[in-house]
Sequence to fold (210 residues):
Amino acid sequence: MKPNRWKFEKTAAKNGYIFIAGVDEAGRGPLAGPVVAASVILPSTFSINRLDDSKKLTPFQRENLYSQIYTYAVSVGIGVIGPNVIDRINILQASLQAMALAVNSLHPRPDYLLIDGNFSIPSVFPQQPIIKGDSLSVSIAAASVVAKVTRDRLMQRHHQDYPQYEFARHKGYPTKAHKKAIRTSGISLIHRRSFKGVKEHCDAIRKPEE
Fold:
């Protein structure tokens, strides 16, 4: 993360905003499972050591930061959109809806949003999309960590229902092993049927413990 990682938060604060939330999502690329978003309001005293875009961190680092964020954040919100909705409205719209849900679950309510990416979300709050925001804003970086850890834990639970896909290893992403498991076992109820690599196998649906 760059040295000016509080830049966007400080600018918003100078403009009179108090509860400034970073918002990010995890899980746009996988073939299975939900897309998960997080929104985080951090205190200005939060230590930013090692906090960065979740993709640049190890699982151990993410878990450690996840605990720190939940301990010290003013508020953390989560939004989850499942594969059935993803298939119905597409992954971009599902991601934006998940982020809106995450924002709506914050208490206290935010008065300004910093959004990762170049799209605004459906929300009444003033907002600023920031391309590569998870590397530029401390609040968005915190949201990216929370979203990633939350989604990884959900996929580890799904592994118990569908061990043949090894979701605990790849979290639903299109690895060679995952694609081979789909070819061998068909798809599960949490696979995204509209995605390439899944829709070709929709005639074979595997239920839990089947």
Q: What stands out?
A: The chain has two domains: 7-151, 159-201.
